[in-house]
Amino acid sequence: MTDELLEKIEEIRRRFPVSYEKARQVLEETSGNLVEALILLEKRTKNGHSRELIEKLQKLWEEGNRSKIRVRKGNEVLVEVPVTAGVAGALLAPHLTLVGAVAALAAKYRIEVDKADRVDEVEKVARNSKHKDEEQPAGAD
After folding, report:
1. Which helix (H) or strand (E) holds 76?
2. Which of 23, 25, 91, 108 is the most buried if burial means most Cβ atoms within 10 Å?
3. What is the 3-state composition of the chain as percent helix, strand, coil, each rounded to the nearest 5?
């Protein structure tokens, strides 16, 4: 290995978190051109991050479609929608969503979020949160 090649590998490693082997491999792919090697690594890194983000979003979408938001009155289910639809509605009309949720709770409807492994009642979560706030001594913030 020549000193020039080693210097190029070191320069690549200063700019990207890659192994010596990967740095050498990229230099070989670009016929030893350092600038082209850096550009190639930059493209691969951006594509890798984009791919990871897309995979995470797909998992969230799938989980949101498996999970449901239910509105109940007693034992009767009045409305059941996927969480993704509920989130989309909340993003498109946040004020309407808030007013609807408060009105439903005031009218003694139950709002549940049903995940594959558990059901959370929004009313219980809100009540527990309120009690925790009341238990904190003044000035504890």
Report:
1. strand 76-82
2. 23
3. 65, 15, 20
Task: Give residue limits of the domains in the chain.
Answer: 3-63, 67-135
Tokens of 112: 């549940």
Q: Assess contact for 81 and 69: CB atoms under 8 A.
A: yes
The pTM score is: 0.47
Q: What is the arithmetic mean of pLDDT over 40-47?
A: 82
Closest CA to 24 of 43, 6, 40: 6
pLDDT tens, position by position, 7-25: 999 999 999 889 999 999 9
Could you tell me which CATH class the domain 3-63 is placed in? mainly alpha
For the stretch 100-122, pLDDT in tens is 888 988 898 988 888 766 655 55
